[in-house]
């Protein structure tokens, strides 16, 4: 277990979790916001993509609530090129996170906000993160509002940053600074 907070348990992704990811990443409702509806996954593609990530440079995690898997979150240290693009110095302890709630019936209930807040706090407390960043697509208003409620703020437009459904999309760089803005 990585941590447990606000009824959410976050633990390292395991082989037995892959069927959940395959189901979530083949659901058009999830793919509209994460990966893209033109890229549904199979169990094999999920295994090939997610299991080699485990640990370095990406730490992949499953999210549970009340013992039920409901989503995915990962954290990583951005590459030197990414940190430069984002405007951070190489000496800063910057972490990035990506996530999705794979069970649409759990959307719009504050779970994403609680999860992002808990992960930001965890990275600050256990990894010494000075900055935690996210880069949602600009048209994903629900995610942006979620991250803002968790204490993140928009800091930079990243034009044509993410390939999504066949087109390069603009994203917002959003950051959480543990020492400047306590989470609500």
With helices defined by DSSP (H or I, 4 residues minimum), what is the helix count? 6
Proportion of beta-strand residues: 25-35%
What are the segments in which pLDDT stays under 50 over at least 5 consecutive residues? none
| Major sheet description | 8 strands, mixed
Over the alpha carbons, how many angstroms does the gyration radius reach?
A: 16 Å
Shape: globular
Strand order of the largest sheet: 1-2-3-4-5-6-8-7
Oligomer: single chain
Question: How many strand elements?
Answer: 8
Gap from first CA to last CA: 25 Å
H and E string: EEHHHEEHEHEHEE
Helix-residue proportion: 25-40%
Average residue pLDDT? 93
How would you describe this structure to a colleague?
With 184 residues, the chain is of the alpha+beta class. Helices cover 28% and strands 32% of the residues. The chain has six helices and eight strands, in the order E-E-H-H-H-E-E-H-E-H-E-H-E-E. Helix 1 (18-24) crosses helix 3 (43-50). The model has no long low-confidence stretch (mean pLDDT 93).
Structure described in brief:
28% of the residues lie in helices and 32% in strands. It has 184 residues and is α+β, with helices and mostly antiparallel strands. The two termini are 25 Å apart.
Topology:
Layout lengths: L2 E3 L2 E5 L5 H7 L3 H4 L11 H8 L7 E8 L2 E9 L3 H7 L7 E8 L9 H17 L3 E4 L6 H9 L3 E12 L2 E10 L8
Parallel strand pairs: 5-6
Antiparallel strand pairs: 1-2, 2-3, 3-4, 4-5, 6-8, 7-8
Record keyword descriptors for this entry.
184 residues, alpha+beta, eight-stranded mixed sheet, 8 strands, globular
